[in-house]
Amino acid sequence: MQFQNLNWDDLKVFLDVARAGNISKSAKRLHIDHSTASRRISQLELALGSSLFERSRTGLILNELGGRLLSHVEAIESNILAIGDAVGAKELAHSGTVRIGTMEGIASLYFAERFMALQQRCSALKIELITSPQLLHVTRREADIFISFFRPEGRGMDSENIGKFRLHLYGAKDYLDQVGTPHCRADLGGHRFVGYIQDLIQVDTVRWLDEAIIAPNLVFRSSSMISQMHAASSGIGLVLLPTFATPEKLGLIRIELSDVHIEREIWLSVHPDLRYIPRVKMVVQYLGDQVQRDASFLLG
Q1: C-alpha–C-alpha distance, residues 206 and 211, integer Å
Q2: In this model, does residue 232 exceed pLDDT 70?
Q3: Rounded CA gap, 132 and 138, in Å?
Q4: Residue 251, Cα to own-chain centre: how many angstroms?
Q5: Would you say 221 and 201 are in contact if contact means Cβ atoms under 8 Å apart?
Q6: How distant is the alpha carbon of residue 220 from its chain centre?
Q7: pLDDT class for 145, splitting at 50, 70, 90?
Q8: DSSP states of 82-122 as a string?
Q9: pTM of the predicted model as reported, rounded to 2 decimal places
Q10: Which residues contact 141 (CB under 8 A, 6 or more apart)?
Q11: Distance CA 191, CA 172 (A)
């Protein structure tokens, strides 16, 4: 093994390819051509005397050696990112990209419009907001920060509860005028509902409609909270939504049920190696402060 020939530029390409699972995607993100990226992977495999990936129809998958190497290269990356803070270069330390992964509803209807103050505070910081219906693995660096309605299981991440929100039923005025406004759980039996497609739900914590009514008459289903909200605004049926969705903007009327109280927690998870990287630390603190500042609104 020619360890003396290990090159950080090769390792950087390996790191990105390991996360993307595709050389072409990594080459584009790293602003190099495909042949250069492929050559750097080949040089690294030559230096190590072994392949690092298995080829599949869906892309590249790390083999056992590649997985072991990834953990070491990520540690190197974390240390390099921390250098800016260690030498006191505050602006440099807070520059760069932080990728946040979370579900579509809270990403689009709550967090997306709350980054302006952070950007004004640090203009060199860039935010990437990924929406996904499933767990993004911070341990595999699919995201630097993951925000969920549950505490992620498994090791390899630091998780904290940063707040919670309440959910309410909403309906359009035309619908309520036609069918009537329910006041308690017993009144829900004759109503139509909008909700998630059950067999496509990948996160059980969004099965919140089940806590209000057993076997609801679902006349419209969507994997998108935004689509559900718009469908309900047309008068097709009632929808259960978080307060952060601000359905009132679409003319939906909140329905207060005397015996139905539904809440969810907001969990923030981050890779331990990244937690104290200045730019990640800044975003983690900002997100936590923002949720705490909005506590009365989220629980309204």
Answers
A1: 10
A2: yes
A3: 13
A4: 28
A5: no
A6: 25
A7: very high
A8: HHHHHTT-HHHHT-EEEEEEE-HHHHHHTGGGG-HHHHHH-
A9: 0.72
A10: 19, 74, 271
A11: 13
